[in-house]
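Box 3.1. Reading complex inputs
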Amino acid sequence: MRSRAEIERPPQGPPQPRPGVRLVPLGYRQAPPWTDDLARRIAHVLGGAVAIEAAPLGLESALDVHRGQYNALTLLERLIALPGSERLLGIVAGDLFIPMLTHVFGQAQLNGRGAILSTYRLDNAVYGLAPDDTLFAARLAKEAIHELGHAFGLVHCHDPDCVMHSSMYVEEIDLKREELCSDCRRRLPGAAL
Amino acid sequence: MPSPQPRILIVDDEAAVRDSLRRWFELEGYAIEVAESGAAALRRLQQESFDVALVDLKMPGMDGVTLQHRMQEVTPDTAVIIVTAFGTIQSAVEVLKHGAFDYLTKPVDPDELSRMVRRALELRELRVQNARLRQAVDHRGGLVIVGETAAMRALNAQVEEAAHADVPVLICGESGTGKHLVATALHAASARRYFSFVPVHCGAAGGELGDDELLGHEGGAQPQPQLRRMGKLQLAEGGTLFLDEVGQLGRRTQSALLEILRSGTFTPLGGTRPRPADFRLIAASSVPLDALVEQARFSADLYYRLAVLTLTCPPLRERRSDIPLLARHLLQRLAAQASAPFTDFSPGALERLVAHDWPGNVRELANAIERALVVGRPPLVAAEDLPLAPTSAPSHASAPPATAAGELSLAAVEQRHITQVLERCQGDRSQAATLLGITTEALEQRLATRAPPAARG
């Protein structure tokens, strides 16, 4: 099978300025404690401006009461309807699913307006382990960069160290690094990093 | 060469499922198409091919199992993964029995889905590679029986036909005419080509093959009880056993072989259970086997079992017009082997090659060219590089002597000459007439009055 990094991409025109990023915490009564650190880590890897701004999007309509999970696609549709031109990353505390799959860490529009991410399965407590804030922050940053990478047009990468490598379990998130491999950096639209 | 972007078809009547799977797989870098029903999927499959199809089991109209059956006919290479919310062992067994790659129950663990699709793509890639490799060894594995004369065209056609018959074949022809090559080509074009081709030279060891050599022996048999030895018949299992110079086979081995062919089984030494004799038998002889039968030197029963189909390799002197083509073919091969930068023959060398009688046939021709590559100067093989007398009389012992009075008549000589020139011109009468120095009409007249060729015994 052809490796993912070898997949041909459409020819790029002259570099365009990369749109900024807006983090949108969803369903939180007050700003979560990790937002500033997350914004800094995203800016460090992807470059450009990263803003934090909540939005009054109710989560109820996306809740599947039988599954006890939120439909990631429903949330994503509502998120990208927000005005503006920046890339949006909605972050929820509840577990996410998409029809067919038992769960997802997040879901993105490939080369689109935004992405949605859940912190639920990034927390050690879900697995009956002792809380670890440092590990949680690192997992959150990697998955946030990963989903935004999709929104910037990057597909999954074969390099296990690259943050765009597909992760099915938190242990796999822990194994990859909080940065893009050289191939993915090159494919990222906008200014050279 | 990298393979193209993997293509996946998602067939589900629920828009949300189609949309979510499309988005999921797009992130993996796959090319995704969706269809909302079995009928729509079949229309899509008529336009393009897919590596993997994810098919919902329960759909209005055509259900997933029916669609899978139809896909097996239209696009058997596509790996079908059936997905359903109503998983039962019965439905799983049914779809797998009908050739589905695998079966998933909704909701699917994302890891399981990704792994399954990857496995399906890997299997598909292996199948494609396998097909490529088979193509490479197909059609005689690239073996070429060179010749454009009528006799060689007929031989090539006979090889094509005989290859698929899976019956014993007897190949006759003088020494060096390419009987071994024909046997190899028969094997390579047959359904047995993926198994072994086992040649046995029957003249070795006084014509008698030891039982252990022919039949092999199981562990515990004498003379070395600790060793198990594969005999020729076991080596040829599923493939082809080629008995070269079968006329030299001793009487005892003839009897053993006849018994194996009669019973269709053989028992290795030290073995207790007979094994099926699952091989195709091809035999070759440079002496007429029927004559040996008449002289009681060869078993008549064995002869009739071997000669179910008989092919004859003509001597080189009877297909002179093939000599330039064959010589160039050999030159190309031998020069490449020897890393010698020879590209062709000089006109004088070609003339000498065509004039020679080649009692040793193609083997002698190959040897002459091989020698020329050593003594000659590239890029052309010159006439003086060839170890041949400028003119040579027929010298082959088994060549039919032209002693019959009729064959020495002027008319017979003329007819033979016309036949040779026609062969050289590949049947082109106009060109042959030019070479003969007569008009086409005159040639037609001579051909119309020619006597039928004398039968050869």
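In summary: Residues 56 and 83 of chain B are 5 Å apart (CA to CA).
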